[in-house]
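Contributing new records

If you add data, match the layout below exactly. Sequence lines come first and carry their own label; structure lines follow with theirs. Keep one chain per record. Anything else will be rejected by the validation script.
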Amino acid sequence: MENVIIATVLSFVITYFSVPILIRVADLKHLYDEPDERKAHKHRIPALGGVGFFSGFLISIAVCIPTQSASPLQYFMAAYFIIFMVGLKDDLVGLSPLKKVIGQMAASFAIIYLGNLQIHNASGLFGIYDMSPHLSSLLTYFTVLVIINAFNLIDGVDGQAGSIGMLVSAILGAYFLHVGETVYAVMGFSLAAGLAGFLIYNISPAKIFMGDTGSLLIGAVNAILIIKFIEVGGNPASKMPVGSVPAVAFGILIVPLFDTLRVFSIRMMRGRSPFSADRNHIHHYLLALDLNHRQTTMTTVLANAGFIVMVFALQGMGTTSLLIFELGLATGLTYTLYLLKKKRAEKLVRVAAEAAAAATAEVAHVSSKAKILRVSTDGVLENK
């Protein structure tokens, strides 16, 4: 318990005091996230915030996680450094999607094979229980890569990725603290505390962004935590077993996972790269409904928290049934947002068309009056 408390305080303090320094460095070196037509911000914002909470997170876990001979921490830290370097290079000079995926695959290798962290049991999902080593590796790779990219893709409005990342890591950290998994409890609370320190500067109006350095790190840490949660929660002999654990895990990460899988599917169905940019994310729908950044972030965080409560309450449904229920509910809510956005867009077009028609009528009316006045004036002059 003492390790968790010290790690939490240390991570928060280091992040809180390092972020203003990073803002100053970004200003001096002109390291900004430039606005464009698909981004929500309108001004240049420093984008090195991820370096701040990466420092707080890394120092706190290095100091506070107890040394164990069989601990996978060294491999996890190697994965974090790989993700950090990939994100930092992308923030500073840009990086192609292929090179980012290669870096993420290298980090995944360190987590899965060197750290020996895999999903071995599907807990009855579509009738599958114990999986073959090849299927287990494939599913774990897919899970890690999707979660890493999910937090990167929802980082579109001030505070959203950080707030959801803080919520998820704190929930998982609390679970691991309860079941006695100190290594993972320290990681969860260290990340949550670092994000809390960062969000002080990132909540709208943001003074700094986390950049890919930060969003990829949030994804990597939560990927490790969620896979360990599936492993521990799915064990009936654990201190706190969880029913339908893969579906519960999906519900814990519902906003980033569902939004990412939905957007990737839409892009591929349209013949585009899944990594191509567009404005089809849930936060774009909320912004289109005239919500500001704070309201959008609050809405998505509350939705994610609601799903977490729901999946824990309904864990007895069975893995397949619960997952289908989650997907159906998430699809229905997202489609409702889409219809509201479409209706508002049509209303704006109609209002603009009416305004244009009114302006045209006004111009025609003024022109008509001017013509009558000119004819009248000409007639007076002729009479004279």
